[in-house]
Each structure stands twice: as C-alpha cells, then as structure tokens.
C-alpha cells in the first residue's frame, strides 16, 4: 500500500507543481481524463492513451 501512496504523491507533485508554485495546466486535464478512464474500467494502455491525447490536444489549442 505504501508504494502506491508514494507513487500517487509523486505523480501529483510532478503534475501540479512548478518549483514552489501550484500550476493547473494541460497536465491537470490529462490526469482528469485518465481518472475518468479508470472509473470506466478501461485497460491501462487506454488510460495512458487518453491522458496523452487530452494533454496534447489542450496544448495544441494553446492551453
């Protein structure tokens, strides 16, 4: 259980922090898309693909 909690904390820190500043950008929407895919019980590669696609799409639109 501890490794999962550490991985979740590291993911959150890398996603939402830039130095000492909280940042909500395209990465946050990618994590949200992955969370939705997980709730729908999608396979792991689909979860990762959804996160990548959403993040890239938001960045392409200038976000």
Overview of the molecule:
There is one protein chain. With 63 residues, this protein is mainly α. The protein has one domain. The protein is built from 3 helices and 2 strands; from the N terminus they run αββαα. Strands 1-2 form a two-stranded antiparallel ribbon. It is flat, with a radius of gyration of 13 Å. The N and C termini lie far apart (35 Å). The mean pLDDT is 91.
Summarize the entry for a quick read.
This protein is mainly α and 63 residues long.
Primary descriptors:
6% strand, 63 residues, 3 helices, 73% helix, mainly alpha, two-stranded antiparallel sheet, 2 strands
Q: How many whole angstroms does the radius of gyration measure?
A: 13 Å
Helicity level? over 70%
- What quaternary form is this? single chain
Widest β-sheet, arrangement of strands: 1-2
Give me the strand/helix succession.
Answer: HEEHH
Report strand %: 5-15%
Number of strands: 2
Instruction: Let me know the average pLDDT.
Output: 91
Number of contiguous helices:
3
**Head-to-tail CA distance between termini:** 35 Å
- From the helix content, strand content and strand pairing, which structural class follows? mainly alpha
Low-confidence stretches: none
Q: What count of structural domains?
A: 1
Q: Major sheet: size, sense and barrel closure?
A: 2 strands, antiparallel
Morphology:
flat
């Amino acid at each position: 259980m501890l490794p999962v909690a550490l991985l979740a904390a590291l993911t959150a820190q890398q996603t939402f922090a830039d130095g000492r500043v909280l940042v909500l950008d395209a990465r946050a929407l990618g994590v949200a898309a992955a969370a939705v895919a997980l709730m729908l019980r999608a396979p792991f590669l689909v979860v990762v693909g959804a996160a990548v696609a959403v993040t890239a799409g938001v960045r392409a639109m200038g976000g």
